[in-house]
Amino acid sequence: MADIDLSNFTSDDPKQFAQIVKGASSEQLTALMKSDQREKVLSEVFGRMPALFRADRAGTTSAVVHWTIGDRADGGSDTYELVIENGKCELSSTPTRDPKLALTVGGADFLKVVTGNANPVMLFMTGKLKAKGDLGLAAKIGDLFDIPKA
Hints:
By secondary structure, the chain is an alpha+beta fold. Helices cover 38% and strands 20% of the residues. It has helices at 14-23, 26-33, 38-52, 55-58, 107-114, 120-125, 135-140; strands spanning 63-69, 78-85, 88-92, 101-105, 129-133. It has a 5-stranded mixed β-sheet. The longest helix is centred in the first third of the chain and has 15 residues, at 38-52.
């Protein structure tokens, strides 16, 4: 199994990254999310979210969303906080506020969701994506971002 080449990851645009994810197997994505590249990948993906935020679709949405990404090599997880308010989306890798919505997903499935390569509703229905809190917000969260399509 070939490794996923992320040598240009920080310069790849979201659509190029979506293509990489689409071409990778679940095993490759899981291995990536257990590797020393995990922090780089998560930082880059979450760091891009404010720029991909669609304020025109958010309206008066005001919410704190926690994303918990599992499958770390040590068995743990990483949690990121997105704050959507006043037409903006801000990121924190250190959650400090109570979430209106908490999403929990494995590493490979997270990459598939944020690149448009998996249907979050199907992941939810099969128990691979867990949502706690405002399920109405969970249903529309994807519409609030310009998710790249591979």
